[in-house]
Amino acid sequence: MRSAPVTPDGDLIRWIELPGCGGPAAGPARVYVHGLGASSPAYYTEAALHPLLADRRSLLVDLLGFGLSDRPAGFDYTLESHADALAAVITAAGAEGAELVAHSMGGAIAIVLAARHPGLVSRLVLVDSNLDPVPLPGPPGGGSSGIASFGEEEFLAGGWEQVRDAVSPHWWSTMRLAGRVGLHRSAVHLARGTAPTMRELLLTLDLPRTFLFPAQDGALPGEEALRASGVTVVAVPDCGHNIMLDSPDAFAHAVAAA
């Protein structure tokens, strides 16, 4: 396990690193970023070890507040702060010019990182990522809008138990590792989005970009504009939101093709 301090107080982000069988000549490192309430080692290990992807150095990073990383109550957990903390990890790991493979909330953070720290990112592979703000308040429960429907004190006082009961056992298996302050604040800021929005930022980025989404979802909102700006849009069959878990072989083929 590796770690790097990412706040003035020395709070640590931790990651699992796979050295890659191809060495530096195989290409830039891949940095895998999880979604809300998840953990990169739990979500990506099988796919990152797929023969099509195992040649690259791979960093399976847990964002601050989640999984193996520290859970500081003094961190604001905005998308911008998450992005800056992840940028510090990429720099500390000597992985500048990385390819970011980022799921759901992690994709929103990756977009912001690429906009704020363009020298650190050579390519984005977004996995069914959040691109737009979510209307609030939503019904209390799972997902960013459900978590964000609670006030912070209300969530900490017991609202988290409603979330626990609303989400799948699989999601809860990693969500329970998250700091509750970080989980709530991250959900609030994800639902709120950024200005410009993540979608608007993505359309203007000057680097290769690929967006993967489940084919079963039908048409991707805004797909025409994404394609017009140079984003490669790929519908992945036989999967739901967690593409890397539901169909790791198809996921690996899509990431390798990107």
Can you give a write-up of this model?
This protein has 258 residues and is α/β, with parallel strands linked by helices. Helices cover 40% and strands 17% of the residues. Strands 1-2-4-3-5-6-7-8 form an 8-stranded mixed beta sheet, sandwiched between helices. The two termini are 28 Å apart. The mean pLDDT is 95. Keywords: Hydrolase. Pfam families: Abhydrolase_1. Residues 31-140 form the AB hydrolase-1 domain.
Strand order of the largest sheet: 1-2-4-3-5-6-7-8
Would you give the CATH topology?
Answer: Rossmann fold
Structural class, by secondary structure, is alpha/beta
Largest sheet features: 8 strands, mixed
User: What is the number of strand segments?
Assistant: 8
Taken together, the total number of domains comes to 1
Write down the Rg: 17 Å
CATH superfamily: Alpha/Beta hydrolase fold, catalytic domain
What is the gist of this entry?
Helix 2 (79-92) crosses helix 3 (105-116) and helix 5 (152-166) packs across helix 7. Helix content is 40%, strand content 17%. It contains eleven helices and eight strands.
Give structural attributes:
258 residues, alpha/beta, Rossmann fold, eight-stranded mixed beta sheet, 11 helices, 40% helix, hydrolase activity, Alpha/beta hydrolase, hydrolase, AB_hydrolase_sf
Topology:
Elements: E1 2-5, E2 12-18, E3 30-33, H1 40-48, E4 58-61, H2 79-92, E5 98-103, H3 105-116, E6 121-127, H4 143-148, H5 152-166, H6 169-175, H7 180-192, H8 198-204, E7 209-214, H9 223-228, E8 232-236, H10 243-246, H11 248-257
Helix pairs in contact: 2-3, 5-7
